[in-house]
Amino acid sequence: MQLRKHIQKFNGVIGRDMCKIVHQDCNKDLAKDKTLPLNSYLVTYTLDNETRYDIVVCNKRSQIFDMYWDKYREGLKDIRWTDGKVNPKLWGVEPKESKKKK
Predict the structure, then answer these.
(1) How many other C-beta atoms are found inside a 10 Å radius of the C-beta of residue 72?
(2) Beta partners for 20?
(3) Cβ(72)–Cβ(47) under 8 Å?
(4) What radius of gyration do the chain's Cα atoms show?
(5) What integer pLDDT is reported at residue 101 of this predicted model?
(6) Could you read off the pLDDT of 19-76 as tens digits, one per residue?
(7) What residues does each domain of the chain span?
(8) 31: number of Cβ within 10 Å
(9) Between the N and C ends of the chain, which has fewer C-beta atoms within 10 Å?
(10) Residue 79 in 3-state DSSP?
């Protein structure tokens, strides 16, 4: 059986047509994290007869499907919402430090 390359992580700002893999080959219980953004998905796929899970942030489910279908074909099993509750615009943004008043 031929091994397929893993999807590489994108480290940067998510644009309109981009997806970001937050956790690759992780435990599916990480999808229950409420601090994930609203537009995050749990992707289930098989590779070498082993079930694997990724958490992906993307604006459209169809983009995730296209990305994983190109890599895994029939190995792609499921794409579901995570339990994330954070606004995607605010996710991962560090609060600015306030200056102390004199």
Answers:
(1) 18
(2) 57
(3) yes
(4) 16
(5) 73
(6) 899 999 999 999 999 999 999 999 999 999 999 999 999 989 999 999 999 988 889 9
(7) 19-81
(8) 21
(9) C
(10) strand
